[in-house]
Amino acid sequence: MHNTATVRSGAWYGDREIKLRFPSDWEVEMLDQKDAPALTAAQIEQAFAEPIGTPRISELAKGKKSAVIIVDDLSRPTPAYQIIPFILRELSAAGVPKSEIRFVVGVGGHRPISEEEMKKKVGADIAAEYEVTNHNFLSDDLRALGKLENGTPVYINRTVADSDFKMTIGGIYPHSSVGFTGGAKLIVPGTAGFATMYYFHSFPQGRGPAVIEGDSDEPDRRDTIEMAAGLLGLDAIANVVLNSRREICGLFVGDFVKAHRKGAHFALETYTTPISETTRTESDLVVINCYPLDADAIQLDKALAAFSYFENAYTIALYPATDGSCFHGLFDRLDYKRYMQQKIERLPTAPTPEPKIGKPTQLHVWSEHFDRDDFYKEYPSSLLYRDLDQLIALMTEKLPSRAKVAILPVAGTQILTP
Fold first, then answer.
1. Which residues in 267-339 belong to E strands, given as ranges?
2. What letters, b where the CB count within 10 A reaches 16 and e where it falls short, cover 182-211?
3. How far, in Å, CA of 32 to CA of 409, rounded?
């Protein structure tokens, strides 16, 4: 007999359930976030009918001859395809010609997404009927908008900058340097040029994860992206909060600051995960399931902060990294084609050593697709496993017979609180 726990895995790649099997005498605790129910179509309609801090989109866009809708990529779990039809209805009511409505994937420094992935993000019918392009931060097809007060030069994708009406569809998730994603983040770094991105990632101070308002006299990264969006003239946002099943449970439409802040407060409430002192101090094993931010190989850090709450526990991270990409085009990796060519030309790696359990201070990662060389370059002191059942079986050799296990089922978004 086994204790079993079921978690979701593989956002964009099946959103399947996987079972964790533990010895029958282990005590298994699921640490669920507070969560929220999915919105109905009527509630989504209401969010567009009652925007936050702006007139309705159909009013904002009236008289505009062109529009651009910026969406995030598959590294974010945002189901943009569910929101787009409502926006197109608003733009049609405003009289914006269908032929002059374009979509830009605000990849920032991430890899470009494929045509098939565009269909996942915006919907196959939208991808067939509208122009959908990836932003390329190394392109010279940019508009120079000037400098911000903190010295950041602002270069923005030309399609975005030249459109009469500009809005973004994003998600609100905890983020280590801007508090929460969403808002104007699809402008900087999402559709910014290299110089802007370099300044953004290098000079302004960050705002910690789940911090809604900054407390510094100097502009931080959240302030920087909002100043840039103001300079550009971002008209509106549509930001979602997702529940533990990757369903839209909150939608915040309107001003890129006011709507974002209201959404961030809702996200903070939804993602909050109470943890007892007993669980924090007495757990022998902590399992973090990185869903729904588990698609590519550069988002793992977003869930690792959870481990800092526990004392002396062994750690397992469930991180499929299904698309296999570990590319972020700044600093040591600039060009995606070059990165892929280097992977092809890479010498064969040494044989994988016999799996074993490391120290409690080491991270043990189960991943079906995380490239081994990339993994050990990014996490040199951690350990990679392909067989989840084998990893848990190896843990039984290290842990006491009545081990206590704590599981975070959606650690990619969870915010732990005492």
1. 272-274, 285-289, 314-318
2. bbbbbbbbbbbbbebbbbbbeebebbebbb
3. 7
Residue 331 binned pLDDT confidence (cut-offs 50, 70, 90) = low
Mean pLDDT estimate for the chain: 94
Q: How far is CA 340 from CA 193, 324, 346, 370, 380, in A?
A: 21, 11, 10, 15, 21
Q: What is the pLDDT of residues 249-259, one digit of tens each?
A: 999 999 999 99
Domain boundary (224, 253, 270) is at 270
What crossing angle do the helices spanning 194-202 and 221-232 adopt, rounded to 10°? 150
Task: Clarify whether residues 380 and 241 are in a common domain.
Answer: no
Kindly indicate the confidence band of residue 216, based on its pLDDT and cuts at 50, 70 and 90.
Answer: confident
144 and 68 share a domain? Answer: yes
Beta bridge partners of 282: none
Do 139 and 223 reside in the same domain of the chain?
yes
Sole residue written with tokens 């972020």: 328
Q: How far apart are CA 2 and CA 310, in angstroms?
A: 25
101 CB-side CA count, 13 A: 21
Q: Contact, 295 vs 322, CB < 8 A?
A: yes
Indicate whether 191 and 335 sit together in one domain. no
26 with 45, same domain: the answer is: no
Q: What percent of the chain has pLDDT over 90?
A: 83
- HEC readout, 27-74: EEEECCCCCCCCCCHHHHHHHHHCCECCCCHHHHCCCCCCEEEEECCC
Summarize pLDDT for 43-57 with one digit per residue, the tens.
999 999 999 999 999
| Residues 315, 263 share a domain | no
Domain that holds residue 352: 2-31+275-417
- CATH code for the domain in which residue 322 is found: 3.90.226.30
The total of structural domains in the chain comes to: 2
Helix (H) or strand (E) holding 133, with range, is: strand 131-134
